[in-house]
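User: My instructor asked us to take a sequence, write out its structure as tokens, and then describe one feature of it. I'm not sure where to start. Here is the sequence I was given:
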Amino acid sequence: MLKSFQLSLSSGLLALCGVFSASAADSWHWHGFVAQGLIQADQSNFVNDDGDISTDLTELGLNGSYKLSPDWRLSGQVMYLDGGNRYATGWRIDYLFLNWTAVNSLDWQLNLYAGRFKNMHWLYSSTRDVALTRPMIVLPQSVYFDAFRDIAVGSDGLALQSTNSTTLGELEFIWSYGATPINREISQRVIATQIQGDTKQKFVHQATVFFRPADSQTQWGISLLDSDFSYRRAPVDMFFDGDFTVQRVMANWRYSAELWELSSELVQERVHARGFYLPVFERNQFAQGAFLLGSYNWSDSTRLYASYDWYTANKDDRGGALLSLQSGGLIPRYFGYQRDWGLGVTQDLAKQLRLKLEYHWITGTGRLGPNVVPAIEINRSRNHDLWAVQLMYWF
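Assistant: Let's start with the prediction itself. The structure tokens for your sequence are:
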């Protein structure tokens, strides 16, 4: 009798452990990706300073999520990047957040995020971190400025996402508030290679509305951004304490058909600078940019891309004449704008193996980093080309 009871208890415990293990396995999901390629940005410092062919096109990532309960989930991604001058080389945590699904009904979904959440406000901001989910290797720089990548991908703070379905269509609202830590290397790539002080993002506040009309293949959106930055000089520094306010107004549109897709984003960005160059310096300037990106499914395994990207650093000086005049001729006019024509092709070689190729014809250097104090000694050509090829595998 006792032996029979012990056997029954053991069987019960083993069954319970099996249920728990199966439940834990069902709650845990993870994915990874590896991408490596070759890239050359001739006559510019986009990748390196000499314009040679480079292998600085490496992306390694591992992301996962764990379902704590039906309404709570923990998600994160660790990433290694080597992009030359485009962004800081090394490991980073792109996001690590707790997600609470507060409402999940047929017509209304409400999610709250706390931690290092992803930027979900722009068309490709939530998918730019994975090579597989980006439409092109190099996204339009008017909106997706690569030197600013680690600041724009996500923030530490709180976010909210609400989706409502009505007879008129689907309305999505996204709100977020937070800040991103900025190290010295990121500062040097965005602001100036010579800086020695500390840069801090005080906050970034964003709000977005997307509308998808019923019985339509279009999506319309508008996004607002407000952010403050500060720079505090080092004991030995050629720059002064400074403060920057960055404000963006963005509109976007997407049309998706069976075999092709068109998307576009327009941005106006206000940059109000105080100090930094001199204690009494102040400048209030509006930049503008826009891109049109199209894709076509040539076959089940081949997709073609074409893009046009336009940017001007000062909407009142589109040709850069004032920029050259204010700098005493030190900064050429072509640093005030940038135009980019791009063509690309994606070929699926196997189930989880993809090859991307693309070429860009670029005029102007207004979107090359660093952005505040440009590298005029390297970028001496108004016209410069860029090509890239990247092989990616995901699991």
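For the description part of your assignment, you could build on this observation: The longest helix spans residues 2-27. Try explaining in your own words what that tells you about the chain.
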